[in-house]
Amino acid sequence: MGVMDTELQAHIDQWRGYVQRHRAISVADVDEMEDHLREQISTLQTAGLSGDEAFLVAVKRMGRMDAISREFALEHSERLWKQLVLVPEEPGSGTGNRELMVVLALAVVAALTVKAGFTRLSDSALGLNLSLLVLPFLAAYFAWKRQVSASVAAVLLVPFVLTALVVNLYPFEPEGATEIIAAIHAPILLWLVVGLAYAGGDWRSGRRRMDFIRFTGEWFVYLTLLALGGGVLIGLTVGAFGTLDFDIEPVIEDWVLPFGAAGAVIVAAWLVEAKQNVVENIAPVLTRVFTPLTIVMLFALLAALATTRSMTSIDRDLLILMDLILVLVLGLLLYTISARDPLTPPGLFDRLQLVLVVTALVVDAMMLAAMLTRIAEFGSTPNKVVALGLNVVLLVNLVWSARLGLGFVRGRRTFAALERWQTDYLPVYGVWAAAVIVAVPPSFDFR
Amino acid sequence: MRIDKDLVAASATPLVLGILAEGESYGYAILEQVNQLSRGRMQWTDGMLYPLLHRLERLGHVSSTWRVSEGGRRRKHYLITESGRAALAERQAQWSVVAEALDQVWRGATGPVAKGWA
Which residues form the Transcription regulator PadR N-terminal domain (chain B) (predicted)? Predict the structure, then answer.
């Protein structure tokens, strides 16, 4: 009997999961139907059916879920426009409110820290430390949310402290290339540390890493929306005060901007957390639009590159831009992977994706050749070394992605292999960023 | 005997309201009662009852409350409202008109019409 019960429980849990995937059916509705299902099962069991049989008959009598879901959708059309639940659904549960309090407190503290940084630090020190002023609070939010153990919290603290020591103790030449390089790579490294907090210490799990990739995309979308909204609000405020002959621009610059920016980093993360089960993710939708467009752009670039005669004549700025374009390609790849059901067979979009990766590879190889030529001709600089290194890091990823993608499209490999490769590769970026921060400045005398 | 699904759909609202008019009930019990009343000849897709109940609730014909069953599970109970009773009375009037018309035409078919054909 006990064994039967756990088996039946597992069946019912599976059924629940299946029903819950229908967007028009809310959790309360599923509760209501589960109660019905259980009554039906126990009636059938009393009539002499086994647990399995009773379950199957009861599910059959429940009817086809897509038809029922359609009925629910007609009745509750608002559910297809899922709302962001900012007030706790069950009055008295209170957890939503407490989380909001924590988020707001962290946002305010982060904003005050950034503000202090703006008044106390020189411009170049501010550049180096900016991510250190905000991201620890974001990591703290996730550490709180995931209730990490003390040892994990300590581990999370280490990279922040080490980064702070390195960037502040290195004798950078002010406004030098190595200082700018360190300032660019510190946020990348620290973002991955935020990822460790996001995973709640479970950083060996590929699932959690993929979740973090999803989170990053959504967070970026939310941050952009907040920035746009904030921009409009500031513009209107400045305009309105301007007509009253008040000049509030200094207030905006000194207080509203640093507060708004630092707060938005935390609030955007909270928004993603609050709605992750509620709305379809937007980042993967954007990849559908931008994957074909990026392929067109890459082809146009290849054509343009083919008309330039010598590799050394390729502009330095173009090399940096190309690196950014490759990062974009990788982003598109990551977000498509993050949204794809690993079990569906390869389709047109997977082929398109492969075209994108292969085109990017060709571009990457050409850039690599151009960089090597430039280094041979003019000697190495910090910028060139870092750009070259980033190129190699991206090249390795793209080559292997192309190989796995081809295998998948041909039906020789599973999609999961491609997914695993991307999540396994994540730490490489962190190691690369850390290596750049630590090793590049001293190798070039902090110039 | 299988009853046509359009007919089942058309009679669902008055049946549910009629059952609730006798007292508060919940989904599974309502279906059980439909089964008994029709002696098992009216087969409903169980899941379809719930969107219907929610529709009646939105229209204000029923109200609902969550209670706890003997088994300790959360269970949503439905109760007919005043507007539900009014709606039921109207449906009853409509159905009697339909039933009366059908009754007459069918009785007529075996009577005078049949004679005329003979």
Answer: 16-90
